[in-house]
Amino acid sequence: MAAYYNDTTIMYLDGQLVKSSEARMDYYSQSLHYGYAVFEGIRSYRTISGATRIFKAEEHFERLQRSAEALNMPYPYRVQELIEATYAVLEKNNQQDAYIRPLVMAPANMSFAPNTESHIVIETWEMQPFLGEKLLRVMTSSFQRPNPKAFKIEAKASGHYVNSILASQEAKAKGFDEALLMDINGFIAEGPGANVFFEKDGKLFTPALGNILPGITRATVLDICSNMGIAVEEGQFTLENLKQADSVFFVGTAAEVIGWHSLDQTIFPREWEKSLGRKIQVAYKDLVTEKIESTANI
Q1: Could you confirm whether 156 is annotated as catalytic?
Q2: Where does the pLDDT of residue 1 fall: very low under 50, low under 70, confident under 90, or very high at 90 and above?
Q3: CA atoms within 13 A on the CB side of 33
Q4: Where are the domains of the chain?
Q5: Of the listed 156, 172, 274, 285, which one is catalytic?
Q6: What does the pLDDT look like over 159-215, one tens digit per residue?
Q7: Percent of the chain with pLDDT over 90
Q8: What is the pLDDT of residue 297?
Q9: For 68-79, what is each residue's pLDDT tens digit?
Q10: What's residue 296's pLDDT?
């Protein structure tokens, strides 16, 4: 059986807590055939008080709703209802440090006609940092981020992630840890599942919204920087801008905050322990575990 669940694992499915091993889906679903679904990636943490806390729960479930609405998917669910259901799943599975995957799926429909209903599942499993904890060797991908005029690029839609899978698999096949994708105009965009920041001369830079997923961790890092007095510029940056950086890091719910060792053949000169990224990595961990209560206390 997959490492994500076993015979006793519980999931939330359309208002009920059920065993994952017994749950069923419709094999005629638009989601399976066309990738027509939306999802979230959320983390929960054991805080320093010993309690379980879902980090940015409201923000994630609000984005799930925006994603569904952007794709014209019926969405009758309430934020608080889903948060309570998620805590129930975590409790049933005896999990605190966990990864949480809500997924809104379409029913059986082989046409492209609008649906009148949706299905929702919330799954949880234990997961270490998605990209590990060592500095990453990154390569520039031959794949680009999709044209924002072709998709609702701000939606966290399942079908969009074929692009991410292809880019990540390409990088790993060539001996790298992860990929960097450019946008359709040749500017740096993001990783397959994370936003990117780079440091130069004591300042941080990150791609502006428009061709990237507006990450919740990205927004959290911007708040952390604001409260720590770290200047951040959002804009359009070239590959050459990035290769001249002092240090670089990815941010994302699954990846958290993880530094880069190199991009293609360029090794970044700033020692990670002395970088702005490392300061943010520590502050982020303190925030999610409630060692500090909010970014205002950094």
Answers
A1: yes
A2: very low
A3: 12
A4: 10-125, 136-297
A5: 156
A6: 999 999 999 999 999 999 999 999 999 999 999 999 999 999 999 999 999 999 999
A7: 93
A8: 54
A9: 999 999 999 999
A10: 54
**pLDDT (mean) for 270-289:** 96
The answer for 243, left when phi > 0, alpha when psi is -120 to 50, beta otherwise, is: alpha
- Class (C level, CATH) for 136-297: alpha beta
At the topology level, CATH places domain 10-125 in: D-amino Acid Aminotransferase; Chain A, domain 1 (3.30.470)
Which of the four pLDDT bands, split at 50, 70 and 90, describes residue 295? low
Q: Got the DSSP string for the chain? A: --TT--TT-EEEETTEEEEGGG----TTBHHHHH--EEE--EEEEE-TTS-EEETTHHHHHHHHHHHHHHTT------HHHHHHHHHHHHHHTT-SSEEEEEEEE--B-SSSSPPS--EEEEEEE----TT-SSPEEEEEEEEEPPPTTTS-TTS-BGGGHHHHHHHHHHHHHTT-SEEEEE-TTSSEEE-SS-EEEEEETTEEEEEPTTSS---HHHHHHHHHHHHHT--EEEE---HHHHHT-SEEEEEETTTEEEEEEEETTEEP-S-GGGSHHHHHHHHHHHHHTTSSSSGGG-
Distance, C-alpha 147 to centroid of its chain: 20
Integer Cα distance of 171 and 59 in angstroms: 31
CB atoms within 10 A of CB 30: 21
